[in-house]
Amino acid sequence: xxxxxxxxxxxxxxxxxxxxxxxxxxxxxxxxxxxxxxxxxxxxxxxxxxxxxxxxxxxxxxxxxxxxxxxxxxxxxxxxxxxxxxxxxxxxxxxxxxxxxxxxxxxxxxxxxxxxxxxxxxxxxxxxxxxxxxxxxxxxxxxxxxxxxxxxxxxxxxxxxxxxxxxxxxxxxxxxxxxxxxxxxxxxxxxxxxxxxxxxxxxxxxxxxxxxxxxxxxxxxxxxxxxxxxxxxxxxxxxxxxxxxxxxxxxxxxxxxxxxxxxxxxxxxxxxxxxxxxxxxxxxxxxxxxxxxxxxxxxxxxxxxxxxxxxxxxxxxxxxxxxxxxxxxxxxxxxxxxxxxxxxxxxxxxxxxxxxxxxxxxxxxxxxxxxxxxxxxxxxxxxxxxxxxxxxxxxxxxxxxxxxxxxxxxxxxxxxxxxxxxxxxxxxxxxxxxxxxxxxxxxxxxxxxxxxxxxxxxxxxxxxxxxxxxxxxxxxxxxxxxxxxxxxxxxxxx
Length: 494
What we know:
The chain is of the alpha/beta class. It is 38% helix and 22% strand.
């Protein structure tokens, strides 16, 4: 049964065991489009019975056809998902834009194609994946052979964020399925439509029922908590806020389930006086304001060497004020709304705190007037500050909005110290034409990802993840396979 439409409002159902089904308790909630405040869909909230059914469907798939399927056939099916998504590209694009409000130009070039490509990337990675073997000498001279054997972990709970809904979901589901696991996906309550739509593609390409399941709902006392506490879930992967990650770790500790957590960040950019200014400004405009600042890798604090500080602030201000905040369908739109009015309230609270704590507002700082038809949406102005103390709340807290603070520094050592003085450790960018300096500074920054003279340049084979309160574990290439596979050693005495 496909998703249904009732009274002209789309119903976002749960997808369990290869079929769409409403909530067992008949509980629903509205999925609001952040562009104009309209209802994008009615979402059916999964209860404990629904979550249990999804986990049991995944367990049955592991014991059935999927668990016995040859690797080559499994990977062929996964690769077919790429064509399946691309064949329905416009549907995925419309759903993603309705949920997030992001510009069509961004979602059509990043979210949907990269979301589809993740299946190909991890199928290819699995094709070339191999174990290890070791020959051991023994006292009798005959020796022994050790070799590794790998098996899927089983049922993976996948809890996804709302900022890049399809891309970050398939970033987890792709390697999980390539390794032979089954998944129960809990998309964000803010952005459930593309995860749900993917169920149709799974059926179309022949993925067995129960391999891919979707349960909708919230976190505490809802689908998220029911999933992480379910004893049938063998491992949990999550991208989102640090405080939620801590709660998931506590749940996972019962039964000693493995976790992979990509959490919050308060990322700094370091701009040295010998940078290429044009590159630094262009890169910073993207790293601060792309996706309305709703990217875990976004830069929220800029450290600029004092000799070029005034020029950098002036040029970044010019770049921001040339941006167009507008509706997703306008090809000239650089920035859409935030994901929700609730999230806008959070971001605006930091805009207000910045002023109270002594910031100079270089540009922005409020809510734009978008006209009567759009003012119910979650619009906000891109914002730059200077003049805040290093312990001010907009400097220490992750805001997750289109804003940054710029402060000067005088020495390389000072920039490193300020950058590392944070409980987070996700990403940083360094802008300098002195590559000796770049290679000297980069290893001293306590983060999982460092870019030099670029931002968001990703090779999907490389490790992705944070340190400190920014996460546990690494994703990407072979690093993802390590999480989704259980490795054993087999010893043969010769």
